[in-house]
Design brief:
Radius of gyration: 18 Å
Number of strands: 16
Strand order of the largest sheet: 5-10-2-1-13-15-16-14
Strand content: 15-25%
Oligomer: single chain
Low-confidence stretches: none
Order of helices and strands: EHHEHEEHEEEEEHEEEHEEHHEE
Mean pLDDT: 95
Largest sheet: 8 strands, mixed
């Protein structure tokens, strides 16, 4: 079975965690794909360039200057650093953005209303993807050649325009399209029943349980989109989904997500 691993900027920025993850990822047997973000570093580069990062409801507004900054960060430094570290550990990785080999095409997001139902926001050069956006044949070709694709969150519309996409959605879409297992990695051991107790990992959560824990406040903030993304992946064809520590990808820890 193919496995899709996803890591975010917090893992990439932590040199110790990243070194451990790349070593362990390289040791994972079977076909695998790595999807990564890098939002923390993108914001830092924007500030260094005199730009002001703007996020609305957790999503980055991407004008033309911001698009240049996130492209440099995601498909440049982050992607090639990961690829180099995997090569160091014996994993024959190939770093890709969506336009490379036409791996992923995105559709530019139209202006959308916010949660208040009144405010409409144009996110700029932001793209949305779904399982049909994924070029599964080319990804399988890379895997058949013994290559491990490393996908960043920069994709294209097929008309010459780069688009900034959400890395979690990319990972879920790739997992669904390939019928693969989605492994979402971050700095905790899984979803916690007590945010102040790192040992209170919930071993499994289904959709009904997620709704209940969201209502009672057990699950809140950034964990909500992580779990929702995993549920969407499984609903759309992924073989399974799990949320776990980036430093524990080779063991049976974590929170398994199901319908």
């Amino acid at each position: 079975m193919i496995r899709i691993f996803k890591i975010g900027g917090n893992v990439i920025e932590d040199s110790v965690m990243l070194e451990r993850f790349c070593r362990d990822f390289a040791s994972v047997k079977g076909p695998k794909i790595l999807v990564h973000g890098g939002g923390v570093m993108a914001s830092e580069l924007q500030k260094a360039l005199g730009q002001r990062p703007v996020k609305i409801e957790g999503r980055r507004v991407t004008d033309s200057d911001t698009l240049k900054a996130v492209t440099m960060t995601y498909s440049g430094w982050c992607n090639k650093t990961l690829t180099a570290m995997l090569q160091k550990n014996g994993c024959n990785a190939i770093g890709l953005s969506g336009c490379d080999a036409d791996v992923i095409r995105a559709e530019k997001r139209p202006p959308i209303p916010l949660a208040d139902g009144n405010t409409v926001v144009d996110y700029g050069f932001v793209g949305d993807v779904n399982p049909s956006s994924i070029n599964t044949s080319i990804l399988k070709s890379f895997l058949d050649l013994g290559l491990t694709p490393v996908l960043c969150a920069i994709n294209h519309d097929g008309k010459g325009q780069l688009l900034n996409t959400n890395a979690d959605t990319v990972a879920a879409s790739v997992a669904s399209a390939l019928g693969a297992e989605l492994v979402c990695c971050f700095e905790l051991d899984g979803v916690l029943s007590d945010r102040n107790d790192p040992g209170s990992v919930i071993p499994s959560i289904n959709e009904a349980g997620f709704r209940k824990m969201r209502e009672d406040g057990t699950i809140a903030d950034g964990m909500i989109p992580k779990i929702k993304n995993c549920i969407d992946a499984v609903r759309n064809g992924a073989a399974g989904a799990i949320i776990k520590n980036a430093c524990r990808i080779t063991d049976d820890s974590g929170t398994r997500i199901s319908l």
